[in-house]
Amino acid sequence: MAEVDASVSRDSGLGITSRLLQSREVGAILAVLVLFTLGSFIRADVFLSADNLVGIIRNTAITAIIGYGMTLLMVSGEFDLSVGSLMAVCAALVATMYGSGYPILFIVLLVLFFAAIYGLFQGLMITKLGLPSLIVTIGTLTLLRGANLVILGGQTATIPSDNFPRLLFYIGGVLDLGTDAFLVSRFPLQIVWTLLFLVLGYYILNKTAFGYRAMFTGGNKESANRTGIKTDHVKIINFMLVALLAAFAGMGQLAFTQAVSPSTGQGVELIVIASVVIGGTNLFGGEGSMPGTFLGALVFALTQNILVLAGLGVQLFQVFTGIFIIAAVLIEVLSRDLRLEYLTEEYLSPLKSLSTETESFFEYVRGDVQGIDEPLIFAAVGTVIWAVATLILMTVVDTILGWEFSFVIVSPGVSALGTVPLIAFLLTAGLLLLTAIFLHASVKALGTRRDFDTTLQGVIYSFAPAVLLFVPVLLIGWSFVTPLVLGSVVLIAAPILYLLYQSTRVLHEFSSRNALLAVGATIVLWLAVGVFTATQIGIVG
């Protein structure tokens, strides 16, 4: 009995923070909090206004509504790249048929029926013929884009305000509330549908037998089949659901903008899938979150809004979309075993041993068949730390002292949120890889019996002081004198060179002389790269 109590105590001791870090929505929650803070910092007067916040939620509508269906589909182990094109075709059908005089109720029912049949067709092709959903939905995406051009005749179709159908208004119109009695002057009805479908989606996924079957299908299809679950039927139904929601979202967008063009829906599929993944749905099926999908859609809506407020337009929106997708995948991989102890075990403990018992640490690395995974995690955590430190110090100093920061294309604000981590990754990865190549060429010439992975492990751990790279980066960005920047680089390089010497001597079982020769040759090669780079920059200048 005592053992059970102890076990329960340990589990409960994880606390709310640890459970939050292990939740599937952690990435989306953190992204929303960061973006909300950033928006408040850039233009609080506009960003925090009721109309702007309502507009942000409205901008989640298309992504979130389609995303709920995509969540169910991805939970069952499939995905659909054609949802953006289907959304556009359905909107085009409504606009052209209504312009031709057909009753709106008939049109809406016909379009929904068409979407359901379309989803059924895709589901049958994928489940019964065994075709991969990637290939099938790329094909149908292209087909539907062509169909949209044919339906619209290459022109934009509109629905005039004086002949706007009431049913379409209820699907995606905007209520004019005035400005006297309400904080919000206009209220888009798409918000109501977004929240309603969120509740329904959550109930279906988490509270119904169909939701459990979908998760079981995506988690282990063979086991699901053995238990009597008709996995093909589950997938077909989910293809139909996501198609119906795409059709509904298309009609809602038509009602909101009162127009549909040949370019409508392009790129929507990528943002939808990215939102679903950011929200915590497993890329390989079996797990998903409807609230997470809404939060993922909110991440993109916030990003677009902040870019506009920052005066950057939407030129960087695709850049951030790519960054968010990559970040979502990383979070997906790391969240499988994410604990508060993770930082300690994979970064702080090795860092402490490396600092206090350098030779013993590298002897442990040499004797432990750990592969390259743990060193890569060590490098990744260090990169994240120096990127975050750069962002924080850049913003704080800019706010307090007003120092203008400019490092390549980075400046305080929205652009720094995406470009600083990218620069940190590229700079660290480039330094590590070239150093490992130079050093391994040197140790091979001196007769090492170890492979490249051994050299790479030593280089990664030796670059532990590179976590301080934010110092010279900030000094350059604030236009400090060159000797001060070079001095900071030397202070960081000195312990790195010492660690490279120790790692080379221990891991490759070299004498002190050979270890010094290998590190010296690496320095010469780096100097050659530096001279060449400076020469090329001088030519351009």
Please explain how this structure is put together:
There is one protein chain. This protein has 541 residues and is mostly helical. The chain folds into two domains: 2-335, ABC transporter involved in vitamin B12 uptake, BtuC (Orthogonal Bundle); 340-540, no CATH class. It is 75% helix and 2% strand. The chain contains 24 helices and four strands. The protein has helices at residues 2-12, 15-22, 26-47, 50-59, 61-75, 83-99, 104-128, 133-152, 166-172, 190-207, 209-219, 221-226, 231-257, 268-278, 290-309, 317-334, 341-356, 358-367, 373-400, 414-445, 452-462, 470-477, 482-507, 512-540; strands at residues 157-158, 174-176, 186-188, 259-260. It has a two-stranded antiparallel ribbon with strand order 1-4. The chain has a two-stranded antiparallel ribbon with strand order 2-3. The protein is globular. 40% of the residues are buried.
What does the secondary structure layout of this molecule look like, with pairings?
Elements: H1 2-12, H2 15-22, H3 26-47, H4 50-59, H5 61-75, H6 83-99, H7 104-128, H8 133-152, E1 157-158, H9 166-172, E2 174-176, E3 186-188, H10 190-207, H11 209-219, H12 221-226, H13 231-257, E4 259-260, H14 268-278, H15 290-309, H16 317-334, H17 341-356, H18 358-367, H19 373-400, H20 414-445, H21 452-462, H22 470-477, H23 482-507, H24 512-540
Antiparallel strand pairs: 1-4, 2-3
Helix pairs in contact: 3-15, 5-10, 5-11, 5-13, 5-14, 5-15, 6-7, 6-8, 6-13, 7-13, 9-13, 10-11, 14-15, 14-16, 17-18, 17-19, 18-23, 19-20, 19-22, 20-21, 20-24, 21-23, 22-23, 23-24
